[in-house]
Structure formats: C-alpha cells, structure tokens
Amino acid sequence: MAVYRVKVATGDIREAGTNNSISITLVGSRGESRRTTISYWFRPGMVSDLTVSCEQDLGPIVLIRLHKWRLFLEDAWFCKDVRVTAPDGTLYRFPCHQWLEGVTTVEVREGSGKKLVDDELEILKEHRRQELKARQEAYQWKSFAEGWPRCLNVGSIFELDSNIQFSCVRATNFTGVLIFQGASHLLAGFLLRPTSWKSLDEMRSIFSRTKVPEYVARHWREDDFFGYQFLNGNNPIVIRRCTALPAKFPVTPEMVAGSLGGGTNLDKEIQEGRIFIVDYEVLEGIPAGTIHGRQQHVAAPLCLLHQGADGLLRPIAIQLSQTPGPTSPIFLPSDAEWDWLLAKTWVRNADFYSHQLLTHLLRTHLFGEVFAIATLRQLPACHPLFKLLMPHFQFTLHINTLARSVLINPGGIIDKSLGTGGGGMLLIVQRGLEKVTYTSLCLPDDIRHRGMAHLPNYHYRDDGMSLWEAIESFVSGIVAFYYGEDAAVRGDAELQAWVMDIFTNGFLGRTSSGIPSSLQTAAELSKFLTMVLFTCSVQHAAVNNGQYDLGAFLPNAPSSMRHPPPAEKGKAFLQHFLDTIPEVDTTANILVALILLSSSLSDRTEAEPRRLIRTFQGRLEEIRERIEERNHWAQLRYNYMNPLEIENSISI
Hints:
There is one protein chain. By secondary structure, the protein is of the alpha+beta class. Among the domains are: 2-138, Sandwich (Lipoxygenase-1), CATH 2.60.60; 164-351 and 550-595, Nuclear Transport Factor 2, Chain: A (Roll). Helices cover 44% and strands 15% of the residues. It has helices at residues 118-138, 168-186, 200-207, 211-219, 223-232, 253-260, 266-271, 337-378, 384-389, 396-406, 413-417, 421-435, 438-441, 443-449, 459-482, 486-490, 493-506, 522-544, 547-551, 574-580, 584-598, 607-632, and strands at 2-10, 21-28, 31-32, 36-39, 47-54, 61-69, 77-85, 91-100, 104-109, 141-142, 151-152, 240-241, 275-279, 290-291, 294-295, 302-307, 313-319, 330-331. Strands 2, 3, 4, 6 and 9 form a 5-stranded antiparallel beta sheet that branches. It has a 5-stranded antiparallel beta sheet with strand order 12-13-16-17-18, sandwiched between helices. Strand 2 and strand 3 (31-32) form a beta hairpin. Helix 8 crosses helix 12, helix 8 (337-378) packs across helix 18 and helix 15 (459-482) runs antiparallel to helix 18 (522-544). The longest helix has 42 residues, at 337-378.
C-alpha cells in the first residue's frame, strides 16, 4: 500500500471558494490512483488536506486531474495549487491558478521543471495533445470586419471562460467607474443638449478640473504645446523626419521664412534634419458619418513642423487635404488667429482618429487579442513561453469583447461620437492594417525608420527605449535558458504553429508587412517576444493612459467636426469654431469613454528564470527613478511610461 499526502489550496481572491464536489486523481509513470474526493465545501484561502491510498507505488507523479461536479447549483472554484508528498518523501508541486466551472476535469502537470524520463514524457505528450485540442475547440477565430485582424469567436463577455473574464474586484471597480464618472458628467442636465458650446470658458470650467487637463486648457492654442504632443502625447508614433517635401504639399521657402528665423531657409533646415512631417493620408476619402442626423466631416491633413534653436518643435505649415489647389490653402502661423487655430484643430481631429482607431485600437488592443488567442490555441500550459506570455494577456479578451459590444458596435460610442461613424471606422482600421510593418512594431527599428533618434525632449522614445532594452534583456535570458541553440527554436513545432497563427490571423498572411511566419534563430525569437510583451504593456500604457489628461479639454482632441474644412482663408471666427467642434452631448459621450479607457484599475520557477526576473525588476526600478527625477523638475510631467503606471496587459 502506497499512501500519498495531498494539500489542495483554494485561491484567496473573492468568491474563489465553492460548495461543489471536488475530487483528484494522481497520475504517475507506473499508473494512476482512483478518483478521491477532496471536499464538498471550500472557502477562499483554505488549504484542504487528504490522503490518497494506492495498492502500489505510482512512480514519479507526472500530472494530476482535478474533477468538479455540482450537487445542486453551479458554483465556480479557483484552485491555487496542489502539493503531493510521495511515500518516499518526494514533494511534487502542481501550480494551477485557474477557475474550474461546470462539470469538468482539468489536468495539471508537475511544475518543478525537472528532466523527465521516457515513460513520463509519453504521458505528457498525450496530455499536451489533448490540452491543445480542447483549447483549439474553445478558442476559435472569427472575422469582426473585412480586412481587420481576426478576433475571438464569442458574442458577449458572458460566453467567456472564467479564466479570461475580469476578476470580481476588477469587474466591480470597472462598473463603479462607469456609473460614478459617467453620472457625474451625463446627469448634469445642460450637458445633454445637442447644441454648440456657448464659449471656450464653459468647456474649461467643466472638464479641466484636474492638473493636466487644466494645463491643456491654458496652453492648447500655443504652437509649442501643439508640437510637444506629437512627441509626448497620445499618438507619438506618426511624426517622422522630412527628408524631402512631397509634391502633394507644395510649401515654398517664402511661406515659412518667418517661422524659421533669420539666416535660415527651408532647404537647409531639411538637409540638417530639423524639419518634420505628419501625414494623415490614411483618412483620405473616408466617408464621414452623421450625429443627430447632421453630416460630419473628415479631413486628411499634412502638417510640417520645425525644430527651433531652443530644441522645441513648432508647426510651420498645414494643408487640410491631400490634394493641393485653390480650395486647399496652406495655413501658416502668420495667418489670422482663428484661421491658424482652426487649421491646427483640424489636425488635432485627424490625430484623434489616427490615435483612437490605429495607434490604440489596432496596434495594441487588436494585436494583443491576436497574441493571446494564438498563445491559448498553440502553446500548452507547460510550455515555457506560455508561462512567460500569459500574464501579459490578463483580461485582454474580456475588455476587447466588451468593446465589440458597446464601443465599436453599430449604435455604440464610435457611431454616436466620432465623425467617421462606424463605416468610416471599419475602413480606417482596414487601411491601417495594410500599412502595419514589423519595423513599425519594434521600437528601435521604428525610431530609426522615422528618423527620430536625435530630436530632444522626445520622452516617449527615451523612456520606451529603456523599457524595450530591459524587456529584451530579460526575454533573451529566458530564450537562452530554455532553447540554447537555434536548432531548438526551429524544432519547436508548437512555437512555429504559434507564430504562424499570429501571421495568418493577425496580419492576414500579408508577407509585405515583414511579420515573420516562422522563427529560425534564438535572436529572432527574442525580438519577436520582446515586441509582443512591449506591445501589450509599455506601448499600450503610452497611448492609453493619457487619454483623459490630453482629451478632457475638447478643442485639443475633438472627436468630430461639424463644418467642412475651410476652402479659403479669412472666414474663421469664434462662433464658427464653436459650431465646428462637437456638440455638448457628443462631448459628454466621448468624455465618459476617455475616463473609462484611462482608468487604472507565484508558480514555482527554475532558479535561472527567477534570477532573470530579479534582474529585470531591478532595471525597471532604475528606469522609474530616472523618470521621476526628470518629472520633478518638469512643468508638464511625462509619466505614462513609468513602470509603476504600466499594467502587465491590455486590460482597459
């Protein structure tokens, strides 16, 4: 008779316990035990002790099966881990950390990472096959819209497995933010009127009560602040060095001479790398939607900027279409005040679409979902990359499914609040995906490609590069430990299936993107993993966390424009400006969305990965200290890439 001592730990999170029946089977290299009941009642944080008796020694314990069935009502259970002590005193650990719901059996493999013998390997190979088969049936792809990355095939958050839904605490906090913050804006009676704002001061008094929005309200007219936002605002990836003026943007040296300072000319400034351009070509010809039955308008501007002797970036020319001509004038800082301000506001409107639909939605949320689904479908729980990646996908499938239900669905916030409407949104994202490249997703390559390596005051670049290098160093250590040689990367069929799934369903098999469909070397794997982790954590924080800060004061980030772009100069004035930017209730709707989007809401590991984690955490602490030292002296703090402010995953 062989007697095994078993400890089963229930998670200490809220509602982790259950009154359903839980039993266990031990599986060893020489046989398996009979199913043994653990208990019929569990409370959060409880550790249940039991003994499992077998007629003979089972050999090394390779995996366990946890069985759950309900007595009367369904009551999900969260298992933290299981520990099994064999008759000879050997301790086996089985980290679980997942919800069991319904009538189900879950297999968990031993987590020490010890080298396995042939009999044990055969058992685990079959376990892996069955695990992936079940996952691929549970997590299937679907197309949300033509030309978009594919997404999870569910209709609502209620179809999601408990393990990928919001935790109870997070769901409660999210709902509380929605109710409290939404009510604070929407229940103020005058905010519900579909009319123009009475004045700029009215907007400032309502939406600029916190430090950064108040700063924005004071400085949004200034060219310095307009230029600053291309570097450290919500959309810091669209600006690039201008090496030659495009024919579609016929700015002459005479037009901008006054903006360049004495003794300089446009050609010289271009050659010396002090001219930059932003081009919203992706918006050309996008059909605008309607709000309250009134036609909205979309422009596809070009903006030329100059780095002054003081290092600051300022706009020097704006064209509001992709086609030059008499009805598409080039606006200049020397124009009348309201002409120049309105032109800049059209650029801010275009930047709002570019940021929300491409930089934020497409390049973080949608890609993050692709990475998550591919990981669940192709990598078994015991795969070292599954362990590395999954913390960076926490709640991503929930928040994205919720977005498809209330944000980007027909009749959702996009339809009601953005000038593009739902149809324009679909086309913009489709075009955006066609332009995505692997280079643009890898920060060091992207900075070089855009010629942005040396411009001062580019905190997004500086903070981002420090974090990219820290992640890359950590990931490279993990890859070296688990793979060692390039041949091991090439020979990992599960890894290769994962990369192909991402290439096929995330980037629709477009080889021109440069996205790899397979990985041949450890260096290639390290870079790809760094891109995934950076996208799901640092990049999302950089383009998400400042949305309310920089968008609360409406004229700085208008979500729609009610008059067409000016076809001539000299026609803009204050009331025309107020009648062009969004109405009061549209502003309220988008503000609630920005509040929600900006809200903030261990297994046994081998010694070498534990050391790498400690080193990585040390580097993050150094980066945090440097950022906070810089912010201490700054009038406007750039804190969106502070490691303390970065969530592990795209969960809001």
